[in-house]
Amino acid sequence: MIERGLKRIKWILLFGWVAFIYLCFLYFWRGKILWGSIGETFFRLFLLFIFLLINIGLGKKILKWLKFKIEFFLESLLFSLGVGLAIFTFLLIGLGLAGLFNRWVAHLLLLWAFLFTYKEIEDVISQIKVKFKSITLSRISSLEIVLFLILFIQIIFNLFGALVLPSGWDALSVHLVMPKEWGRLHRLIRVPYLRFGGNTPYNIGILYGMALLIKDAILAKLIHFSFGILTGIGVYALSKRYFSHRVGLLASVIFYTVPIVSWQSTTAYVDLGFTFYAFLAVYAFVNWINSKRRGWLFISAVITGLSLGSKYTGFLWMGILCLGVLINDLFFKKEKFIVLVKNFSLFTILGGLIGSFWYLRSGQSIFRLLYYILKGGMWRKAFAMTGTKAAVDLVSSS
C-alpha cells in the first residue's frame, strides 16, 4: 500500500515537473532564455554538490590521518564536512594573503582538491548509494511519509528563493561585496571605500568569495541554502543517535520549517553557516561527554573556532562550551586537575587559534573594543539597547 502511494507520488511529481517545463517554455519561448537559465541552475547545483563532496573528502582524509574513526554514516559525513571546511577556508585565506585570490587559482584549487580526495569521494558516493537502496527497501510509515513530504516541499520553496539574485541589504553591502572586491584585487586587503563590514569575521564570506570567482552570487546563496539543509540533517542524526529515528525526523522537520530558517535559506547571509558550525560543535561536545574520546573534544574545538570566525556571536558560543568543559570535568567526571587543565587548554587554545584570524586582522578595532568593554559605560548602553552588533558598530565608528 505504501509502495503504491510512493509510486503515485513519483509519477505525479514527474508529470507536474514536465508540465511546468513546457508551460514555462511556451511563456518564454520568444526570449529564448528558459533553457539557458535551467542549464545554469543545474550547473550551479552541480558545483555546489562538488564543493560539498570535496570538503567531505578533505575532512575524511584528515580524520583518517589522525586515526579517528566515526562509526555512524551521517555523523561521518557531517563531521568530515566540518573539518574539511576548516581546511578549505584557511586554504582560501592563504591564497588571499599571498595575492592569489583569483578565478584561475580558485579553479585550480578545486581541481587539486578533487584529485587529492578522489578515493574518499568515491567511497562517500558508494556509501550514499548503499544507504539510499536500504531506505527504498525499508518500510516507511504514513507519518514518516507526511514528514518527508513536508521537508521536501519546504526544501523546494527555499531552493526557488535561493536561485534568484540576492537582494538583502546585509548581503549586498557586506557579505558579498567585500569578497567580490578581494577577488577583483586578488588579495585580502583593507577596502577603505566600502563603508560597512571592514571588521566583520569572514569565514563564511571567504566561501562566498570562492563562489563569486567560480560562478556568481547565486552559487554563494546556494552555499548558504545548503547550510540550512545540513543543519537539519545534523539535528536528525543527533536525535536518532540519542533518541530514535522518528524523533530525529520530527526534530529535523521542526527545525527546517521555522520561518527564520526558511527566510535565511533564500539569502547570502552568514547565520545558517554559523548555525551549522555552532550545532556541530555542540554535537561533538555531547559525543565527547558520552564516549569520553578526546578526539571529539578536538573536533568540537575546531568547529567552535569556525563559528567564532563566522560571526561575533561565536564569542558567546565559545564561552558557553568552555564553561561546559569545566563543569563536566569538575562536577560530573570529577577528573584530576591536570586532566581538566589539558582539556580546557586544548579547547580554548585550538578554538581560539582557528577563530582569531579575522579579529587579529582587524587590529586597532579589537583594541578599541577591549577598551570600551573595560571602560564599561558606552558598551553597556549599546548592549542594553540592541545587543552586541550595536556595540561593535559603535566601536568601529568611533
Mean pLDDT: 85
Number of helices: 20
Percent strand: under 5%
Helix content: over 70%
Structural class label: mainly alpha
Low-confidence stretches: 377-398
- Main beta sheet strand tally, sense and closure: none
Q: What is the radius of gyration computed over CA atoms, rounded to a whole number of angstroms?
A: 22 Å
- State the shape: globular
What oligomeric state is this?
Answer: single chain
Distance between the termini: 68 Å
Query: What is the number of E strands?
Result: 0
* H-E string: HHHHHHHHHHHHHHHHHHHH
Secondary-structure blueprint:
Layout (H helix, E strand, L loop, with lengths): L1 H27 L5 H32 L7 H25 L5 H14 L1 H20 L4 H21 L6 H7 L1 H9 L19 H10 L2 H26 L2 H12 L2 H6 L6 H21 L2 H15 L5 H19 L4 H19 L1 H6 L1 H12 L1 H10 L1 H10 L1
